[in-house]
């Protein structure tokens, strides 16, 4: 008795596996999130994200060039200001750290990559929320929208090709689109964090941006138990003019990525967030996981779920590995 079907035939060696592999990860599909700290003379390591730093303006420029040389598709900048206030005024200030850094990187790499900026107030507010608070301490949606419009404009003026509203305020994409268009930035695109969950996996990000959040984000970010709501958010963002949509986090939300990729008629991105990075790095640090294999498997899974683009802190490194693998496969070694 022999089995009549032998799926193992298509796995028997590297050449056949290469021929039939369905999902690819290419450097151009990876976007590197980067942090830049105001006033820093040297890059500062982020303890909960081994291998990731808060850049100085100088080290950011160098790392941006490195990442572009490695072949990544884009850079996503986050600013860490020296001073914070209730309205996050550093975000709309054209001399605020994020806008200064955008100009630095734009001058360095120009149009060789897609330069993106996080459009959200949480890095700039002293209470750590993504918007301004009303008298009850709740995030005031509509007052926040006005600031997002100004913030996006400051970023576009500073050289961002793409702005990425991540605050989950209702109407944020529409307001930003209007604000950009009214100022003539009709070619600046919007990457909408459409389905962004109130996730524990953002934990290490607080370290990365020195943020002390008072309370939680559950009144604006989505409940992890909800899938359908992600589709509603995606639809709304598309109706408001989003050029791309994003699901965040990635690995615990592969079903959401799949569903969003089935309904969206624009590219879908997924953000492999700080906690996803730190989990793997911690296990690798203990000698429990193989770093390169685990990282590439996680990226492949996110792509397989339907993401066209992946934001990942491993973007530059993974891009180098992928280029090496490609070379090796082509030589058949
Ligand atoms: C908000 C923002 C956050 C992240 C990206 N943009 C923090 C949050 O929503 O709490 C998290 C990214 C990560 O964890 O890697 N500006």
UniProtKB/TrEMBL annotation:
Q: Name one GO molecular function term.
A: zinc ion binding
Q: Which Pfam families match?
A: ALAD (PF00490)
Q: Which residues bind 5-aminolevulinate 1?
A: 206, 217
Q: What is its EC number?
A: 4.2.1.24
Keywords from UniProt, A to Z, are:
Heme biosynthesis, Lyase, Magnesium, Metal-binding, Porphyrin biosynthesis
Q: SMART domains from the xrefs? A: ALAD
Task: Name the domain of life this protein comes from.
Answer: Bacteria
Binding annotation for 5-aminolevulinate 2: 274, 313
Q: Which family does it belong to?
A: Belongs to the ALAD family.
Q: Which PANTHER family match?
A: DELTA-AMINOLEVULINIC ACID DEHYDRATASE
Name under which the protein is recorded: Delta-aminolevulinic acid dehydratase
């Amino acid at each position: 008795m022999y089995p009549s079907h032998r799926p193992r035939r298509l796995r028997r060696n590297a050449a056949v596996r290469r021929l039939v592999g369905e999902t690819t990860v290419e450097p151009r599909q990876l976007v590197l999130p980067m942090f830049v700290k105001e006033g820093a003379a040297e890059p500062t390591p982020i303890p909960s994200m081994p291998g990731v730093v808060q850049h100085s303006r100088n080290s950011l420029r160098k790392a941006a060039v490195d990442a572009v040389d490695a072949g990544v598709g884009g850079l996503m900048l986050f600013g860490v200001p020296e001073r914070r206030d209730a309205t996050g005024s550093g975000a709309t200030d054209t001399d605020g750290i994020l806008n200064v850094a955008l100009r630095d990187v734009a001058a360095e790499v120009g149009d060789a990559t897609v330069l993106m900026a996080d459009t959200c107030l949480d890095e700039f507010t002293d209470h750590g929320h993504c918007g301004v608070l009303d008298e009850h301490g709740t995030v005031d949606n509509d007052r926040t929208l006005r600031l997002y419009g100004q913030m996006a404009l400051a970023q576009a003026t500073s050289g961002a090709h793409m702005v990425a509203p991540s605050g989950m305020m209702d109407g944020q994409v529409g307001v930003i689109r209007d604000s950009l268009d009214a100022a003539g930035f009709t070619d600046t695109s919007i990457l909408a964090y459409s389905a962004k969950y109130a996730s524990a996996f953002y934990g290490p990000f607080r370290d990365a941006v020195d943020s002390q959040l008072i309370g939680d984000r559950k009144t604006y970010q989505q409940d992890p138990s909800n899938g359908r709501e992600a589709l509603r958010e995606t639809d709304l963002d598309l109706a408001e003019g989003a050029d791309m949509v994003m699901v965040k986090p990635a690995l615990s939300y592969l079903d959401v990525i799949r569903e969003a990729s089935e309904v969206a008629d624009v590219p879908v991105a997924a953000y492999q967030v700080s906690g996803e990075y730190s989990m793997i790095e911690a296990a690798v640090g203990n000698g429990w996981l193989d770093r390169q294999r685990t990282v590439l498997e996680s990226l492949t899974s996110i792509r397989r779920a339907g993401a066209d683009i992946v934001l990942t802190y491993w973007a530059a490194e993974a891009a180098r590995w992928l280029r090496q693998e490609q070379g090796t496969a082509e030589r058949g070694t």
